[in-house]
Amino acid sequence: MMRFFRLQLMLVVFLAVAANGFAQEKQYKVAAMGFYNLENLFDTFDDTLKNDEDFLPEGAYHYTNEVYQDKLGKLSGVIASLATDMTPDGVAILGVAEVENRFVLEELVKTPALAKRGYKVVHHDSPDRRGVDVGLLYNPKYFTVLGSKPLYVQMPIGEDGDTSFTRDILWVWGLFDGEPLHVFVNHWPSRRGGEAESSPLRENAAAVCRKVVDSLLLADPNVKILAMGDLNDDPTNNSVNKVMQAKGKQDKLKDGEMYNPFYDFYKKGIGTLAWNDSWNLFDQILLTQGLLKQDNSGFRYLRNEVFNKPYLTQQTGHFKGYPHRTYVGGVYQGGYSDHFPVYIYLVKEVK
Fold it and tell me: Quick check: 170 and 150 in contact, CB under 8 A?
């Protein structure tokens, strides 16, 4: 059963009890949901169906079992630390990107840092040309998965008649502490070829996700949905702001629009990855308005975070201050990922 916590924050509301003159604190359940791009979490085995040649012991990156195990240990340590300032169970749900297969996720959740959490895995193979997929880790104490489905993202057909492939969008639905919840894990096409030239590809991926969101909202305007991922676009770009209809002001949302709590972070210059000495905030978690309601009928949004601790940043050299990644220019750096993880807190009043 989910633990109860008293939050010594602005969230705590004191109610006067006339009968005895004492003040009584309300109690809340606290839960955290996150997303983390794991930056090329491959195993060391050759898969003829995957583009994994570089990530083999004899490959360009000399990706040995020692490197793989070190990466698993470092990533699991980060995941174990997420959101523990408000809940010792950490993130109840974590979307992930850039994983080769289900096997690496099963290995990840069995590491010493995470084994006690009992995380389960949702994963579907996708046709991405890089050989990477998205996935979902979840704590069964909180979330009961009822079903999942990969959503295919159609890419344009080239002049030679070949079709490029990108990651499927992972749609998972279930009961979160008894409440229906839908989660979409996204990793939209990159900015290869330039931001403007590649923008239609991300808008297309966003439209695939938004179409299912719209169908769920049509059936229930109060449905609780999280759309998370590495969107390869910032909160102000068309794919997020217009296609997903994700806005940064809760009090100005129109019917059907989603809330993007990372909009203000981006405006303040806070990012999740760095490129050419500038920051982008590609890693986001979007919410439907069912998660904003203050009617005490279930979980609702509290606040968001970018997990950018100093140990996750490069401390020296040309890339000082950037996320401390595993490889730079094919040279092993012993880091974590080229992205910072993000998460949000949800709360629910205990009756």
Answer: yes
298 dihedral zone (left: phi>0; alpha: psi -120 to 50; beta): left
Name the class of domain 31-349: alpha beta
Nearest residue to 71 via CA among 35, 107, 102: 107
So where are the chain's domains?
Answer: 31-349
Distances (CA, A) of 149 to 22, 229, 263: 51, 16, 28
Q: Is the pTM of this model over 0.90?
A: yes
Cross-strand bridge partners of residue 35: 95, 342
| Nearest alpha-carbon partner for 25 in 33, 37, 35, 16 | 16
Summarised one tens digit per residue, pLDDT across range 58-103 is: 999 999 999 999 999 999 999 999 999 999 999 999 999 999 999 9
- Rounded distance between C-alpha atoms, residue 101 and residue 317, angstroms: 33
Q: Are 342 and 34 in contact (CB under 8 A)?
A: yes
